[in-house]
Write a structure and sequence with these properties.
The chain is built from seven helices and twelve strands. It is of the alpha+beta class. Strands 2-3-1-6 form a four-stranded antiparallel beta sheet, covered by helices on one side. It is elongated, with a radius of gyration of 24 Å. About 25% of the residues are buried.
Length: about 250
């Protein structure tokens, strides 16, 4: 995706315009041609992103080479009818790939892509967590049996509450690292995990070998570190480490 859509409220001015309320039944190529014809009147369009997938339908990102052009387009095109639907415009919440590549160097572009990937992974993890919390629909026979037994009955099994597996824990700023070689200390782990954005510290557990906690300033850094180190092999025995989010 070229940029991230604003979650709520006005986003700060930048070179990317987020367009929503587009007609979803129009073929993508036809829609992109129409958008380019409209927005190129307000400046140099260096990228235009519109996709067919369900979540992205009815939306597009128009990337100009300057924030001034984007601001002018928003003011002039806001509410303009395209295929009989009024377009709703705002600044995108983040810089587009095209702008970062144009204005920065290769290192900045790679860092931008890592942050974008980390944000995507965070949202996917939260969405999966929400889905798991939704109760599954009961078969009609089970509902009938439950109603016949009456209300107010509680399970006598103290372990009935479900425990979320480590792999499906929601993201947070602290990683839990397991199966570490016994000779790995704070310095060795810092060399691995300290290269990710927002690194704070490595904490070993006194009296416990093979485990450690790694803390970052934000979830974004922790997500990026987890995705890039999970399954890594360390030590002379090539032990495969397990990296998950700390259980809260």
């Amino acid at each position: 995706m070229a940029a991230v859509a604003p979650s709520s409220g006005a986003s700060p001015p930048n070179s990317t315009v987020y367009v929503r309320n587009l007609e979803e039944r129009i073929p993508i190529d036809q829609l992109k041609d129409a958008l380019l014809g409209i927005f190129s009147e307000y400046g140099n369009v260096i990228d235009l992103v519109a996709k067919r997938n369900i979540k992205a339908r009815g939306q597009a990102f128009i990337v100009f080479d300057s924030p001034d052009a984007a601001e002018m387009a928003i003011k002039e095109v806001q509410g303009f009818d395209l295929f009989d639907k009024p377009m709703a415009l705002d600044f995108a919440r983040s810089r587009s790939d095209a702008i970062v590549k144009l204005q920065g160097n290769d290192e900045e572009f790679e860092a931008h892509k890592r942050r974008r990937l980390a944000e995507k992974e965070r949202k996917q993890a939260l969405e999966e967590q929400k889905m798991r919390k939704r109760p599954a629909p009961e078969p009609s026979s089970a509902r009938a049996a439950k109603s016949s037994r009456g209300a107010g009955l509680k399970s006598s099994n103290p372990t009935a509450a479900a425990v979320v597996p480590d792999e499906y824990l929601p993201p947070n700023k602290i990683l839990f690292v397991q199966n570490l070689p016994e000779d790995y200390d704070v310095e060795g782990l810092t060399a691995i995990f300290g290269r990710f954005e927002g690194f704070r510290e490595v904490r070993l557990v006194p009296g416990r070998k093979g485990i450690a906690f790694v803390e970052y300033e934000t979830e974004t850094g922790a997500i990026s570190a987890k995705e890039n180190t999970a399954g890594m092999t360390l030590g002379d025995d090539n032990k495969t480490i397990k990296v998950t989010y700390q259980r809260q």
